């Protein structure tokens, strides 16, 4: 047995031998070399354990569920280092071959003389999500040539990634996602050319500032994240010819130009995200050959032309976002074949014609973004059969006619934005009865009435009916929306009778400008939280701040109307900006975390960093 060579004490020998006879689990026990144990302890001692956790469960909106474990704390000299948390040893030789201290709250610097670099046998090194305190990655990393997996993502490294990283030609996965790092062009190219076993490369945020490489020899690549890397050049076929590529992210590289290449039928892509790049031109017909594709994100590029009918061949697609481009023409009716769709984004293009009735088969659809186009015709009636629909934005089009009467199947709908269209007739009471609906914006249409009776609905929070042709004393009808917090009725012909017997105890914003106020609206005297109310329009409309992050996930319901308005003098009030943030944040947040488009933890990391500063 080769093990014998490595025994350094008789005690250990006896221990192992007796174990091996007494149980079949002999392979579970290793004996760590004292040098390696010493090196590990030394490595441990070079850090403090921070009391601030970093790894945060993204589904937790309260920022409370962290899952960091300070693994080094439990390392005990009197035990075999192979049994320490985060350590893996070779079953035969006993050498330390794996060190996983991700999310371990390490705080400090890895110096050149760090004992880490004595662990020559390491095949896996994962130090992701720690705080290396703005130090740079030491060039000695190039000595660990046995590494197969290197993961240093989101550990607050800074500066130049050492060229010596290109010595690690056995790497199978390389993750260096880092907001403040730079990588030189030559090293980057070497990686993609000399690392013949490379399957995973993730460099989100690293400033590479080079053209997208044309020659990629690492034909085993499966996962490539080059998002936000300042890559330029032209998109070529190279990536699309890789035989095993499943996930390709090139987003947030506005210098990256070119057109989408012809896709070959052998393609294996599951996810493609080129959003916020300079990629232009038309979608090739061959896009339909990506028959395994789950996620296609092309938001904010320079794409134009029509969406080819072949898009209907993407039958596995769940998330499809063509928003914010220059597409024209009609929505192809073949989209009705995409039965797995949960997210359909076509906002801010120049689509025209009627919205075809493509929805009856799209029973998984939860998010529908069609806003800011030139759609005409009536509200597509098959939308009302979407029992899973949660948010729907059809605002800023030219839809006309009446809304369908029976909307009661939209049991999951929380937000409906139909503002800035030419819809008319009566607003059906079935809308107000939707059990989860909390925001409804119908402003800037030609609605002339409201069904007078509807059931109590405590979920309803935000209602904007401004700029319509509503008339009469309609407040009474709204009285069953018991938890209303925003109510905008400006620019209608609504009368507010002084003696009206209703209360909206949760009301925070009320805008009644250009309404017929005959007298002081006494129902307001019971409102405790009212922060602003307005009776006339402002000429200077402050534009909401939009950070890139948030606009990405929050494309729709605009709160301008909520915030615009003079204090009407009842309450000392100014425009309450904090309100916007109060509402906006959860909106995009929720959308993001619904798990429709699972990104990595990068955003929580950014947020955690922001909170720290
Ligand atoms: C790491 O230590 C530095 C200096 O003591 C401190 O400023 C920083 O907040 C710490 N990081 C964490 C995550 O605790
Ligand atoms: C290490 O293990 C020994 C024996 O099991 C125990 O007495 C000691 O408290 C442990 N030390 C730490 C730091 O856990
Ligand atoms: C890198 O580490 C992070 C945090 O532990 C983990 O989520 C990710 O999957 C790791 N990457 C690889 C390729 O194992
Ligand atoms: C390692 O290098 C750092 C900085 O160069 C120095 O402060 C530290 O004392 C050195 N440690 C050892 C054990 O030599
Ligand atoms: C990359 O591979 C080529 C040929 O195999 C070799 O000549 C070159 O030295 C390698 N580059 C690096 C940085 O290892
Ligand atoms: C990225 O690197 C380039 C060239 O080194 C530099 O000009 C540019 O300012 C850097 N960008 C960022 C965001 O640091
Ligand atoms: C790509 O590789 C081919 C041959 O492998 C070579 O002729 C060509 O010059 C390379 N192009 C670039 C940009 O490196
Ligand atoms: C793809 O879609 C086009 C147009 O809808 C159709 O003519 C073609 O047969 C489809 N191809 C496959 C492989 O399904
Ligand atoms: C509407 O779409 C156009 C492009 O068609 C875009 O330029 C504009 O910014 C969009 N407006 C909004 C409010 O999103
Ligand atoms: C609604 O508008 C359509 C034209 O778009 C018109 O034919 C119809 O009479 C209008 N209905 C009402 C109730 O105003
Ligand atoms: C309010 O709802 C109740 C039942 O939930 C109903 O009886 C009543 O008529 C409604 N009131 C109005 C004004 O719609
Ligand atoms: C507003 O409604 C009143 C009746 O409630 C009506 O007399 C008046 O003409 C209407 N004004 C407009 C501009 O429609």
From TrEMBL:
Residues 121-254 form the F-box/LRR-repeat protein 15/At3g58940/PEG3-like LRR domain. It comes from the Eukaryota. Residues 1-22 form the signal peptide. Gene3D superfamilies: Ribonuclease Inhibitor. PANTHER family: OS01G0149700 PROTEIN, RECEPTOR-LIKE PROTEIN 12 ISOFORM X1. Residues 34-51, 71-90 form the Leucine-rich repeat-containing N-terminal plant-type domain. The keyword Cell membrane applies. It is found in: Cell membrane. The chain crosses the membrane at residues 563-581. Keywords: Cell membrane, Glycoprotein, Leucine-rich repeat, Membrane, Repeat, Signal, Transmembrane, Transmembrane helix. Residues 328-524 form the Disease resistance R13L4/SHOC-2-like LRR domain. This is Leucine-rich repeat-containing N-terminal plant-type domain-containing protein. Pfam families: LRR_1 (PF00560), LRR_14 (PF23598), LRR_At5g56370 (PF24758), LRRNT_2 (PF08263). Its main location: membrane. GO terms for cellular component: plasma membrane. GO terms for biological process: defense response to fungus.
């Amino acid at each position: 047995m080769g093990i014998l060579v490595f025994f350094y004490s008789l005690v250990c020998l006896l221990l192992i031998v007796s174990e091996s006879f007494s149980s079949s689990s002999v392979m579970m026990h290793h004996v760590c070399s004292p040098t390696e144990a010493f090196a590990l302890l030394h490595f441990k001692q070079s850090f403090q354990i921070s009391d601030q956790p970093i790894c945060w469960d993204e589904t937790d909106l309260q920022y409370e569920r962290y899952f960091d474990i300070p693994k080094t704390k439990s390392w005990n000299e009197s035990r075999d280092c192979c049994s320490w948390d985060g350590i893996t040893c070779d079953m035969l030789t006993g050498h330390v071959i794996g060190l996983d201290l991700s999310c371990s709250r390490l705080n400090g610097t890895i110096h050149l003389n760090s004992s880490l670099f004595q662990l020559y046998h390491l095949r896996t090194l994962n130090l992701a999500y720690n705080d290396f305190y703005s130090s740079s990655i030491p060039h000695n990393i190039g000595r660990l040539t046995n590494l197969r997996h290197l993961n240093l993502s989101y550990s607050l490294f800074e500066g130049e990634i050492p060229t010596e990283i290109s010595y690690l030609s056995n790497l199978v996965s390389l993750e260096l996602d880092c907001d403040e790092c730079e990588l030189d062009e030559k090293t980057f190219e070497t990686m993609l050319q000399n690392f013949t076993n490379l399957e995973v490369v993730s460099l989100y945020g690293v400033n590479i500032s080079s053209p997208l490489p044309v020659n990629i020899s690492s034909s085993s690549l499966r996962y490539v994240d080059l998002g936000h890397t300042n890559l330029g050049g032209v998109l070529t076929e190279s990536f699309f010819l890789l035989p095993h590529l499943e996930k390709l992210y090139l987003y947030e590289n506005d210098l990256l130009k070119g057109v989408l290449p012809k896709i070959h039928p052998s393609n294996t892509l599951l996810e493609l995200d080129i959003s916020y790049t300079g990629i232009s031109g038309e979608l090739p017909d061959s896009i339909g050959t990506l028959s395994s594709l789950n996620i296609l994100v092309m938001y904010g590029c320079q794409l134009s032309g029509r969406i080819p009918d072949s898009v209907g061949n993407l039958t596995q697609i769940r998330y499809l976002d063509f928003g914010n481009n220059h597409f024209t023409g009609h929505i192809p009716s073949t989209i009705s074949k995409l039965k797995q769709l949960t997210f359909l984004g076509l906002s801010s293009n120049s689509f025209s014609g009627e919205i075809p009735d493509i929805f009856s088969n799209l029973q998984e659809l939860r998010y529908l973004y069609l806003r800011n186009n030139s759609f005409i015709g009536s509200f597509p009636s098959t939308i009302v059969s979407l029992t899973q629909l949660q948010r729907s934005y059809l605002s800023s089009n030219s839809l006309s006619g009446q809304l369908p009467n029976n909307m009661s199947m939209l049991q999951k709908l929380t937000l409906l934005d139909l503002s800035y269209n030419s819809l008319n007739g009566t607003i059906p009471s079935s809308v107000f009865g939707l059990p989860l609906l909390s925001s409804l914006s119908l402003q800037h249409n030609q609605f002339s009435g409201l069904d007078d009776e509807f059931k109590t609905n405590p979920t309803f929070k935000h209602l904007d009916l401004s700029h319509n042709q509503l008339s009469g004393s309609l407040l009474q009808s709204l009285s069953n929306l018991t938890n209303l917090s925003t109510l905008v009725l400006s620019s209608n012909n609504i009368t507010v009778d002084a003696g009206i017997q209703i209360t909206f105890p949760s009301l925070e914003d009320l805008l009644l400008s250009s309404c017929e106020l005959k007298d002081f609206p006494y129902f307001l005297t019971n409102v405790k939280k009212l922060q602003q109310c307005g009776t006339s329009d402002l000429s200077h409309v402050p534009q909401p701040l939009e950070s890139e992050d948030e606009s990405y996930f929050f494309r729709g319901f605009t709160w301008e109307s909520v915030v615009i308005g003079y204090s009407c003098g009842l309450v000392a009030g100014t425009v309450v900006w904090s309100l916007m943030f109060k509402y906006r944040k959860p909106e995009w947040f929720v959308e993001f975390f619904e798990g429709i488009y699972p990104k990595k933890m990068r955003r929580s990391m950014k947020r955690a960093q922001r909170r720290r500063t």
